Amino acid sequence: EVPTSPQSELLPPRRINSAPPLTPETSAANVSASAAITRRVRIDGQRFILSSTNESIILSGPNVVVKGPPYLPAVGGVTHCHDVVDSSCSATGTCQTCYTFNEADVELIKSQGRNFIRLGVVWAGAQPSDEDALDVAFVQRLHAILNLTDRTGIHVMLDNHGDMTASAGCGNGAPMWVSQKAAPEL
C-alpha cells in the first residue's frame, strides 16, 4: 500500500487538458514497436541501463534549449547548428540560439560519437496564455523532435527548463499568467 500525505488527499490530480497522456500505448503510432521497446533506458544507481539488453550505456550530447519564443526549435532546414560544432562558444559567450534541429544536427551529433540531447521544455512555451490548454504549435514541435530523435536513435532527456523561475523575473520557465496570478501586485 502506498502511503498518502494529508495534502495528496486534499488535492485530487488535475488534468491540464482533455487529451490522453502520452504513454507507450498512446504514442505507439508515432514510433515503431521495436524502437519503443529497445530504446528504453532506466537508471540503476549512477548508471544508465538499456532495458532491452541490460547493458550500461553512457549518454553524451548537447543541450537543445530555446529560452524564448517559440521555446522549441523547428524540425527543418538542412544545415546544422553551429553551436553543436563549436562548443567553445560557451567560454567566449558567443553562442546563439538555434531555432532549428534537424537531420543535419543529428548526423553531426552521431559523427561526434554522441547519442543524446537534453531538450529544454519550457512551461511558458507549452501554456503561454491559458491554464487549461496546451499550445498546439509547441506540442507539434515537441512531437516532431521526439519523432526525429526516436527514428535516428538519439536518446532524449526532457528538461523542464527554467532560469530564475519565470519570465516575470527576466528569466524563463513559468508563463507570465502564472506570475500574474501568484503576485498580481507586481
Automatic annotation (TrEMBL):
Residues 1-27 are annotated as: Disordered. GO terms for biological process: polysaccharide catabolic process. One of its GO terms (molecular function) is hydrolase activity, hydrolyzing O-glycosyl compounds. SUPFAM superfamilies: (Trans)glycosidases. The keyword Transmembrane does not apply. Gene3D superfamilies: Glycosidases (3.20.20.80). Keywords: Glycosidase, Hydrolase. The keyword Zinc does not apply. Residues 102-166 form the Glycoside hydrolase family domain. Signal peptide: none annotated. Belongs to the glycosyl hydrolase 5 (cellulase A) family. PANTHER family: ENDOGLYCOCERAMIDASE, PTHR31308. This is Glycoside hydrolase family 5 domain-containing protein.
